[in-house]
Amino acid sequence: MTATDPATLHASVATKLEARDLDIYYGNFHAIKNAQLSVPENCVMALIGPSGCGKSTFIRALNRMHDLTPEARVEGHVFLDKQDIYEREVDPVTIRHRIGMVFQRPNPFPKSIFENVVYGAKIHGERNRAKLLEICEQSLRGAALWDEVKDRLDRSALDLSGGQQQRLCIARCLAVDPEVILMDEPASALDPIATSKIEDLIHELKKQYTVVIVTHSMQQAARISDFTTFFLMGELIEIGTTTDIFTKPRDKRTEDYITGRYG
């Protein structure tokens, strides 16, 4: 692996999330091989690589989503603020609140816009209507959706456009006050205008959160990320600033992918 630890590039910025010696298996298939990755606080880290190279598999290990897949096995360590989230005593549900996730396709619940946003807060036991309304507004504002839906919070979330549904899912994620947001190709099912809104939103989110995004689009990675990680056949090949990865990659395989020779 050719890698520059992003934390060393910005020594004044703390590492928020770190994968160390990470191996992931599906049955006997070795999907991710000895991956090492440090993600600085308040940045956007993009994961790129050909389809099937392990990007989504890797990102799902960062908040213990593989616990929900019977045949999956994760070995190694993932640290959130230097705490190993795979230690036996750590509650995976708590981890998924601290490290939220937005999936490739919008997945709103068949409930009202309001009930979608405050779902997590209610699960945590919040019942005060005024507080729930405050959480709803704050989260929708954070997802750049408030002005579009503030007069129809009681309408079904399924009535929203695809791009609005995805921003609603981001609002639902923000409502439980995460520290890290994982996004697995959040704009791949959206049109260019909706994609642009999601990208603008990601740029705003990094002021308050650490964001890790899987993207199939190198152009998108170049537009929105501070750091880029290149995966190939289950291996993390190279990490660096996005500028370096796209203009002066150190590994020939990264250069071949960036220049379109394969993938």
Provide a descriptive summary of the structure in words.
The chain has helices at 6-9, 55-61, 92-98, 113-123, 129-142, 146-149, 162-174, 192-205, 218-224, 242-247, 252-258, and strands at residues 2-3, 15-26, 29-40, 44-48, 72-80, 83-84, 99-102, 180-184, 210-214, 227-232, 235-241. Strands 1-11-10-4-9-8-7 form a 7-stranded mixed β-sheet, sandwiched between helices. Helices cover 36% and strands 26% of the residues. Helix 4 packs across helix 5 (129-142) and helix 7 packs parallel to helix 8. The model has no long low-confidence stretch (mean pLDDT 93). By secondary structure, it is an alpha/beta fold. A hairpin with a 2-residue loop joins strand 10 and strand 11 (235-241).
Q: Key features?
A:
alpha/beta, 26% strand, globular
Task: Bin the strand percentage.
Answer: 25-35%
Distance between the termini: 19 Å
- The helix-and-strand class reads alpha/beta
Instruction: Give helix and strand order, one letter per element, not per position.
Output: EHEEEHEEHEHHHHEHEHEEHH
Helical percentage: 25-40%
Which consecutive residue ranges, at least 5 long each, have pLDDT under 50?
none
For the biggest sheet, the summary is: 7 strands, mixed
Query: What is the radius of gyration computed over CA atoms, rounded to a whole number of angstroms?
Result: 18 Å
| Strand order in the largest sheet | 1-11-10-4-9-8-7
Shape: globular
Q: Calculate the mean pLDDT score and round it.
A: 93
Count of beta strands: 11
Number of helices: 11
